[in-house]
Fold these 2 entries.
Entry 1:
Amino acid sequence: MNVSLFITCLCDLFHTNVGKHTVEILEKVGCEVDFPDSQTCCGQPAFNSGYLQDSKEAMKQMIRAFQNSEYVVAPSGSCVGMLKEYPKAFKDDPRWEKPAKALAEKSYELTQFLVDVLGIENFKSSFQGKVTYHPSCHMTRLLGVKEAPITLLKNIPGVDLIALPMKEDCCGFGGTFSIKNAAISSEMAKEKSHHVSETKAEYLVGGDMACLMNIGGKMTREGKNIKVVHIAEILNYSDEVDNK
């Protein structure tokens, strides 16, 4: 099975290890992974801010970049959720509607791809620790991925998964929302940080680095010693490699 990695902006610029772990996970389950280097931002910041025409230029570039891909997989529910919006953005556009729909239909978030496409619910990982999971808004509400990450985490023997209180609450990031409404965003992150602390977990895990960076930044400023990790890092954890 051929899979193209959609790295996303935040993983490409700030958390490259998440991309590396994603590739290794896909290769371990038998996928041949390629990386179209013409990919760019999915257009979500401009799209969510109301600049539809500007965002379409980024969308067109993404469509071109992945036009020959069999599957497109990303370590981000939010960015894949944006790809699913492409058909609506190009509705009734004779040139772009069909290729936009084709990209949307073959694009998946990592855990969604593992569980729903490949049927893999048990992924060999030697990770151990108390974990709580933050279900990001776009991943759960727009993309509809809720059970796949939980299933994978529960099936790792060393993971003690603790339910996050008020898990459905937004962390306050929301892309440009955190910039335009900084005070409100900060209070939302503060509340999320409090609920994470309530679990007594050692690790906060999620499927979107934007949310994890936002919550992690707040917890760091509060002096909390809770590690923030992407679920790809948990799934691909190996004692032999990570303890060196």
Entry 2:
Amino acid sequence: MKPFVAAVTLAAILSAGATAWAEDAENCKDHPLFSRMPNYEIHECATTQFDAVGFPRPELKEWNTPEEYTTVEGKIHAISYRPKEGATPTSALQIVRNFQNAVKKDNGTVLGDYGPDLYPHLPDTAVKYIGGTFDRYTTMTLNKGGSEFWIYLGASDGDEYKLLMVEKQEMKQEISVNDLAQQLDKDGFLTYHINFDTGKAIIKPDSEGSISQIATLMHSVPTLKVSIEGHTDNVGTPESNMKLSEERAKAVMAAVVAKGIAADRMTAVGRGQDAPVADNRKEEGRALNRRVEVVKK
């Protein structure tokens, strides 16, 4: 993992809205919460109506165990900025300080400030939106317009910076157990991005909802039998990934059994790295490939 260094520029001043530049990626614009650094353009953006992202606790010094993160659920906004061609390089420190000052000026809170002395391991829930390699980054919270925002800002020297904002809110329930059963009948499988400790088969607390959903589905359809199939990205050897995927499938199966589902209705299978659904050359793709599928027998 790339060590922290200083980098990039960004004068993030809170604003009621910002105008997209002609060079911005199609259908992308600044979020109303922040303006952008001078001479930067939007490289890419993404919005997800509901997801969960783990944020390190303010006192965190080691980034390994689930209890060191706070899981925040809500609407996701992710924006990547790059300097315009020929623009003077800005440091990551300057970008981070601009955002921090803007948030504090608006009575927000800086939770974490990470530089060369501490390079934390980003949780997969954040990596899939903003990647995982920065020279410097910060985490912040801010109440604005009646909403509570949790924010990641990652910056790289002389290069891009990325914003990940979680607008905290309850999920609007749109799928019933019957809908899941119908989807399973139609597609033959359901996909879950269950989070595990890195390189291990220990399920993180923020995946409890997925485990409960699988168990509820199994309870509601007593005749249903499934295969719990683990998949990995291509980091590591094929042999180690096959073993890890099987261990993770077994962990999910055990968690569902613990909720009252008979073990003989399920089997656990490891698929390793052999069936990717996204590009393993990018961290965003690797995060999508790390998944568990519930396959109807």
